[in-house]
Amino acid sequence: MNKHAITAGRIGGSLLALSVALVAAPAFAQAAPQADAAAPADDGAIVVTGIRASLNAAAAIKRTSPAIVEAVSAEDIGKLPDVSIADSLARLPGVTSQRLEGRDQRLSIRGLGPDFSTTLLNGREQVTVGDNRGVEYDQYPSEFFKNVVVHKAADPSLIAAGIAGTVDLRMLRPLAQQDRIVALQLRGQMNGIKKLNPDGSRYGYRASAAYVDKFADDTFGIAIGVSATDAPSQNERYNAWGFPNSTATGGALLLGGAKPYVQTNKLQRYGAVATLEYQPSDNFHSTLDVLYSKFKETQRLRGIEFPIAPDWGSGATVQPGYTVDNGLVTDATITGVHAVQRNDYNKRDADNFSVGWNNVIGIGEKTHLTVDASYSHAKRTDFLLETYTGTGYGATGASDTLHISANKNGTFDIVPTLNYADSSLFGITDPRGWGYNGTTAVVQAGFLNRPSFKDDLFALRASLDGEFEGSSVISGWEVGANYSRRKKTSAFKSYFLCPTGAGTDCTVASGTTQFAAIPQQAIVGSVPLGYLGVPSMLALDPLYLYNNSLQGVYDNRPVSLVRDNSVTEKVWTGYAMIKLDGDVGGKKVTGGFGVQVVHTDQSSDGSISNFSNGVVTVIPASGGDKYWRVLPSANLAVEVADASYLKLATSLTMVRPRLDQERVNQEFGIDPSKLGSTDPANSVFSSNGGNSRLRPYKSFNVDASLEHYFPKGGYVSLAGYYKRLTDYVDPSASFVYDFAAAASSLSPAQQAALGTTLGLVKAPNNGGKGNIKGFEATLSLPFSLLTPSLDGFGFFGSGSYTSSKITLASNPGNPITLPGLSDWVANASVYYEKNGFQVRASYRYRSKFLAEVAGLSANPTYRTAKAEGILDAQIGYEFQEGSPLAGLSILVQAKNLTDRPFITYQNDDPRQVIDYQRYGRDYYIGLSYKF
């Protein structure tokens, strides 16, 4: 029996695993096997390395899979072909990413955002340090992965498959390596924007080391890796509040307000990985994977909030002589402005730990038992500090005169008259008098949010697979079961911050200090906001202010008290499948068909808050639901001609809602000002929150792919797909509820005036439906296929078009597009690699899309993002055999050479820019040495 046939990743042991095992290196547990970046060559063959080896290995995975997949393969040990995992994945057909803080973090697959896909590590579902389910890929050091595979079609043995796709991060397998490996990498980083904050930095580094070896006659292997990253980023930020039709400008759109910032970030991440692999015989194979990653991100933000439009309570005046262009005020002078100067500090600490143990046991010649146990853990805590300074409390100090003028990029220059760097003019205060704790005014000179998240997933899986004898096509079978338990706990604490001194609970009525001088020790200098016309502002140390000049009081508003919750999901999955591998009419046929049966027991613990007559009551609450889902799927690949494949797939898949939507929490309120109303939509009673009985999205999918592979490397493919979505979660849903039981909390006089006990409960439901359809085209072309004189040159590119239509029951007359969907996505890379030299330029484009961004109080909200095109490039050299420096490589990279900003706008009007974030270019220089 072939030793590698049992090695081929049997948690699943699908036909995908079997077919790849026959042509590639031994695989790893629980996932489809990987192809080596540079497979051993036959005598006289040319060994291909680097970029071409990476493309060839990825193509081998795609070609040998009966399902429709895309793949990225490392060029060498610990060396994915891009700066990060998300960068590499964003170059695959039909895949793109959204940048956050200058980094590619959120993936969109076939127009569906991160909430619609699942991330696996070696075939095992992973939790996340993010707020919901979507994995933030910078939590994983890219040096640890050999391949990353995106499954675009479901398979019965692929547990926790998403609707959009399933991303499988695959670690190296030591027994698949030919020799002992020791690899070291060191890379320096510089941001192209000069340091924006005096306590920030534009320089960073990244270092990693890997050791791979085999022992005991190649039956025991070990792979160990460590990684350290200190990565800076800078951000010139601009945010507009919106554009009201202002009465002060004759109904023309006027900038409501703006807050320009300069932001410096530092991401520090340390990680370690270990794989132990043991295969003493053909009948036993055991693999243990452990991954740990710890990262801390620090952000320093300094800026000014300028209230402008009188319609939104600015108290300012628009002077005559303003300019209106096509309904938008593009130039104006504003007097009486009381701005809020901000010095903020954000810190995020997160830990990610994953362990998995896979065992494959041979039972006879053709049957195998696979048992896999795994645990994934993530924990994150945030410290989000805001501090405010102004000329006086509640708009009582010196006012400013601004001149605003629109720029071509949609931002506004804001040129002030006041000197915002004058510490004698500004003090610690609540400049606008915005502070309010739900019942009375507070002196809010700052605010502190301290959310924390904990996410744990335990899974146990067992499967049996075997082969059929005497059949020309039906080659094997597999049955299995998986149990998983996931619990995510979200906890929130927030505090009002006011100047130290008199008063209690920061309230104005108690005599809280309303204005305090800025301590000299808190001043670290000044920073310009020159990119928008502000010459300079005070640069303060917000941590000094927090520790020495501010006092805190717990935020006990109803909306704050009702946020803590936990969501638990216990999931049983059983599956059975038949595998196909044989000839039909002289054509090679592979594939499989089968079914998953999924039982879910979901529950949530939280609270319901009641705010009535100035009194807040918090009541514990729990809820949940149990349900079944049956998910059939089938994959078929036919070699219709030599090296040409037609692949077809159909399936019913599901993906669970956002975890914050599954919470039981509700904020119940009574508004006595609406006592006489008889309209439930305008009732005295209302409630707003989550839905612990929310069901998963469902999708019926049809996929087709036509692929042709060239004899000397490269391929061309064309794919099409259709998804019919049902049970789509409507986040704006509401229903009428009879709050008669709450009427007793009203006074007798109020009960007599009560118009109705009916009111609206706002909670998400499965009231939406829609469809997605599109196509993808890919070309991987070594130019040596055209002429030998171009040997070493090549091209890899793809383009995709996707359209969607989603209808929500809450607004059936206004269909929406999917969040994260760009109609057009294109990627193109040209490269040269020969005799140790390596050059590559990559460009990716996505058309406008609905982006998820942080809104008020960091709540997720959606806005249209402008189209963007990003150019990256790299050049390197690897010293060849015979050189005294053999094994040493030098690489220079540049990211975002187009210096493309991230821009969002509203009302389908690109002039109404809400967010503008310029991250600048990033430059890297690295050394790697392998021996």
TrEMBL record:
The keyword Membrane applies. Pfam families: Plug. PANTHER family: PLUG DOMAIN-CONTAINING PROTEIN, TONB-DEPENDENT RECEPTOR-LIKE BETA-BARREL DOMAIN-CONTAINING PROTEIN. NCBIfam families: TonB-Xanth-Caul (TIGR01782). Residues 1-31 form the signal peptide. It is found in: Cell outer membrane. This is TonB-dependent receptor. InterPro entries: Beta-barrel_TonB_sf, Plug_dom, Plug_dom_sf, TonB_rcpt_bac. Keywords: Cell outer membrane, Membrane, Receptor, Signal. Residues 62-165 form the TonB-dependent receptor plug domain. GO terms for cellular component: cell outer membrane. The lineage of its organism: Bacteria, Pseudomonadati, Pseudomonadota, Alphaproteobacteria, Sphingomonadales.
